[in-house]
Sequence to fold (109 residues):
Amino acid sequence: MASTYSCKHCGTNLNLRSFYAFPPDFYFEAGNKGSVSFSAVDAAKLRFEKEDKIKPFFETLNYWGIQRKRTKMICNSCAHLLGYIYDDGPPLTDTPGQFHMGPSQETIR
Fold:
């Protein structure tokens, strides 16, 4: 049975497929933090904004850094922040990704 994922703020169906959801116990370097992570999303339902901050961050004991590059995922209908795309997911393509660390994961909160 497929799940329906929608924006908590306005209720718009985000057209996310359970098939692309990572298992709840799948480990990511930045931590899962009770979120649902997808390997693919419907770009027609979301707006993407790049974020590049030079500021120390600490996610877990082993995941920290000085510069954070991530992409905000925003609902097209109400402009509510839904989550982020990080460059710490498992390889999804044959491309090397940022700093040759692999491509991204999508995280919906």
User: Anything to note?
Assistant: The chain is about 0% helix and 40% strand. The first strand starts at residue 36 and ends at 38.
